[in-house]
Automatic annotation (TrEMBL):
Matching InterPro entries: Fibrillarin (IPR000692), SAM-dependent_MTases_sf (IPR029063), Ubiquitin-like_dom (IPR000626), Ubiquitin-like_domsf (IPR029071)
Protein name per the record: rRNA 2'-O-methyltransferase fibrillarin
Main location: nucleus
Subcellular location: Nucleus, Nucleolus
UniProt keyword annotations, A-Z: Methyltransferase, Nucleus, Ribonucleoprotein, RNA-binding, rRNA processing, S-adenosyl-L-methionine, Transferase
Domain Ubiquitin-like: 5-78
Organism listed in the record: Emiliania huxleyi (strain CCMP1516)
GO MF: histone H2AQ104 methyltransferase activity; RNA binding; rRNA methyltransferase activity
């Protein structure tokens, strides 16, 4: 910036303020100039990027005369609420010992006394409130899932990759056992707003048909957020075949699988299960979250190849749009219900409110066609 510039700063309240910036100004100078406009919990953003404090960034980001900078509130992390504490301390009052000595000499002697010193003892008092409450972890009725009770009850899974956080979730370390046999076990908080399976568990689904040692085919694995928790749930003896079509999300999924040996990432279209047939064995359960209009067909194709007889599928579906409601259907179809009998209800259907709007999970059981079974036998 070769000359003095005017930067337009827009606050969260919508006010626009002009700030003069000198030719050698840094972002730190700009922040100090707008400190009266921005509370402490706001950060300086330009074109979607958070600005640093070095002087070079001001010119690199193109903050020229008339540029506009927005103040954006900083996001806070989730998990347990932090405790609040207050403390007071009083400080060092005390008296030290007396030091000195007497000296005698020949002839005209001399006497001397040492000085007195103070210092020494200090007293301090401190009080604190609202620190971290001890967390108690109890098993959930679904095997492999747990409930952590602290300031609030949260759903957790036992971390298979200790020390690793997949999507910034909170981790809880709990000591179990007594005496010398005490061991530290780490759990990961399972966020129902980011995982439809967690939302179904908190919604009261009868069974998720997954437990330690299960083999699960996960269709629509995305970046591996929910897959990582399923990996924790089935444990080292189980296996998760994670299918994702997007190459961008697939890269994140592969990074998750590098630290979890029971995840097998498959970057392929779930509509064509024959393409990854050589990678997947028979599974106990299929979880599908592919958000496609032919989702039931996709699950059926995969179930025919991979799901064991009497195995179960858990499908996350989005509710019908308004154009599919009975009012928008042709009059003939509404007036002649006997021509279009309603399909049989699924074994279990559960809404995901309040965690997901217009979503539900459908749990179904797979039974092989008897005619096909006889042919194969």
């Amino acid at each position: 910036m070769s000359r003095c510039s005017t930067i337009n700063v827009t606050t969260l309240a919508g006010r626009s303020e002009a700030v003069e910036v000198g030719p050698s100004a840094s972002v730190g100078d700009l922040k100090r100039k707008i400190s009266l406009l921005a509370p402490e919990n706001q950060r300086l953003y330009f074109r979607g990027a958070l600005l640093g404090d070095n002087a070079a960034e001001l010119a690199e980001c193109g903050l020229s005369d008339g540029a506009r900078v927005n103040l954006v509130a900083a996001m806070r992390g989730g998990g347990f609420s932090p405790g609040k504490g207050k403390g007071k301390g009083d400080g060092g009052k005390g008296k030290g010992g007396k030091g000195g000595g007497k000296g005698k000499g020949d002839g005209k002697g001399g006497k001397g006394k040492g000085g007195k010193g103070k210092g020494g003892k200090g007293k301090g008092k401190g009080k604190g409130k609202g620190g971290a409450k001890q967390v108690v972890v109890k098993p959930h009725r679904h095997e492999g899932v747990y409930i952590a009770s602290g300031k609030e009850d949260v759903l957790v899974t036992r971390n298979l990759a200790v020390g690793d956080s997949v999507y910034g979730e909170k981790r809880i370390a709990v000591e179990e056992g007594e005496g010398e046999e005490k061991t530290k076990i780490e759990y990961r908080v399972w966020n129902p707003f980011r995982s439809k399976l967690a939302a179904a568990i908190l919604g009261g689904v009868d069974s998720i048909w997954m437990k330690p040692g299960s083999k699960v085919l996960y269709l629509g694995a995305a970046s591996g957020t929910s897959v990582s928790h399923v990996s924790d749930l089935v444990g080292e003896t189980g296996c998760v075949y994670a299918v994702e079509f997007s190459h961008r999300s697939g890269r994140d999924l592969i990074n998750v699988a590098k630290k979890r040996t029971n995840i097998i990432p498959i970057i392929e279209d779930a509509r064509h299960p024959q393409k990854y047939r050589m990678l997947v064995g028979m599974v106990d359960c299929i979880f599908a979250d592919v958000a496609q209009p032919d989702q039931a067909r996709i699950v059926a194709l995969n179930a025919a190849l991979f799901l064991k007889n009497e195995g179960h599928s858990v499908i996350s579906i989005k509710a019908r749009s308004s154009r599919d409601t009975p009012e928008s259907q042709p009059r003939s179809s509404r007036d002649a219900p006997e021509m279009h009998p309603p399909p049989p209800p699924p074994p279990l259907q559960l809404t995901l409110e309040p965690y997901e709007r217009d979503h539900a999970v459908v749990v179904s059981c797979y039974r092989q066609d008897k005619s096909k079974k006889q042919k194969t036998s």
